[in-house]
Amino acid sequence: MSGKWRARLAGGAAGLANGLFGGGGGMVFLPLMSRAPGLERRQLFATCVGVIFPVCAVSAAVYLFRTEISLSAALPYLAGGLAGGFLGGKLYGRVSAGCLKWIFAGFLLYAGVRYLL
Amino acid sequence: MSWLLPFLCGAACGTISAWGVGGGTLLLLVMTLFLGVDQRTAQGINLLFFLPTAAGALLQHARRGYLHGPTLRAAAPAAVIAALAGAWLATGLDADLLRKPFGVYLLASGAVLLWPGGRPADDKK
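Above: the input entities. Below: the structure tokens describing the complete assembly.
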């Protein structure tokens, strides 16, 4: 498959999943693109954010337009997220992300089972 | 004080996401599984949550020249169109209809994350 078509397919799949489930499109995009030639790891992660950002922006607009989500309910999460992002940036490199990845994977499996039951 | 728990959860998820772990679903799951937020509201908040953090990261990536133009130009339009369709469906359907597919999606994501070499997230730094 040519690189262009691989990217289109990965983008389409990630966008659909992200719109349907309200997040996690990167988890579709990254594995589909991880073997794309000519893309080093750093570029892959950066480009993934570049694809998911407009996806989240248009999806959020649809959710705001079509449902009764109040911005006041979202505000504490957003404020916390900003504080956390700042803190995370400060602590970056001092915590093993590898270990966290395993915990997160376990949490995903637990959550998946909770949703299926 | 009803804002305190959401604030703390947002902060914790924001911190962990800044380390490249969380995959954009961590806060969503915390909201639905532990805070009793209904699925559709949680999805909307999760989407909004991503925007400010990602905008900051994106500026940094662009400044350092890490954005891969050809991939971005091919993937982004397809992704945006598919996202519009997905979001339109999700906001029109009965939210319970998406529970089982979402569960399968989470299990698959967990499995991909654990697959040896399946995802390059482990040696991000």
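Note for the figure: Residues 70-117 of chain A form one domain.
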